[in-house]
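Quick illustration, no need to memorize.
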Amino acid sequence: MKRFVLVGGGPAAVAAAGTLREEGFDGEIALLTADQELPYERPPLSKAFLDDPRHSDGLSALYLRSPQWYAEHGVTVRTGTAVTRLDPAARRLALADGSSLAYDAVLLATGVRAKPGVRLIDDKVIRLRSAHDATRLRDRLATATRIIVLGGGFIGCEVAATASRMGKTVVLVERASSLLERALGADLGRVLTDVHRSEGVQVKLGTIVLDCVSGADGVTVRTDRGDVEGDLVVVGAGCEPEDRLADTAGIATGNGIVTDELCRTSAEAVYAAGDVANSYHPFYRKHIRVEHHDSAHRQGAVAARAMLGGAEPYAEPHWFWSDQYEHTIQQVGRSEPTDRLVIRGSLEDLSFSAVWLREDRITRIAALNRPRDVMAVRKILFTNHSVRAEDVADMGNDLRRLTRPARIVQRKEPR
């Protein structure tokens, strides 16, 4: 009987387990996660989990699959199980408890880890990465009144929005010129910065954190622009791919674990998917690593089929979302600096889509409170379509009906 081992407790590993069974694999499936919990959804940890009473009893509502599902599908889940070494030649994993596990194929879905940075000096400074962190944060939020959030990416902004709606005083510290600048660019980032400020969040941009100092009355964040005082610090900035297992095994790495379009690594019978995978994308013709829940889920399914000998590549558009206050941010696609930006809707009214064009093709869309635009573009992004900028900008046009046959037979390939 064959044994496939899935290393990781996120959507890539769980999707792989489900796909293996759906495709008829009747061998042994072992899912190993260093977390003490069954695999769970991570996006809610910075949002609803912190203040929604429905989550007060624990993580069960966030489980990607129920305990019964694993039992019914013959998937052995080993929580609290860290893998310390991978031997591709022997096809064996060394575990932290001193034991080892042989495999016929292994999927590395190890996600990301926090970058070294702010010292976690005591329970007044919490780095939000896991369910354990989120539980500690929820408990501390119950009594803290002044919250300092370090990092203006999605995790930091979501925590700031949640804490603000809970009635807390929130200071959000970011070193860039706007919030979400890396993900959305400076122009759209400034819109989201204004949203947070309008909700009462004190946003400090262009600010570098130097250290945290704990005291009897709270914690002080020392920055290059002065000290910030609070009761609680939440670190939501800085992560990197957890590729050390592959790297020490001699598997090709570089901004994650390098794979082909089938999630195969440089080692035979070793696959990688999810946030840790720097995978070749056949449409973009280059390796891309993204940290998106949707991509991880889809890559896990592709990896599972490849483990069974299939040849269906991961060739989907990259899509993500974020909920902050009553607003929903969504994005799909990738653009280049030379692509033309067209705004559809109203930045002032907080209902708009930013659409990037390369000649007459849409390459990317980022939208605030316009999910239908995003879904429309998602469907046609990789098709042979053609649009005009003025038609995209015209709110009277439905993007779902806007595309028409391309005007040219041959087009420039995406860079």
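The two ends are 45 Å apart (CA to CA).
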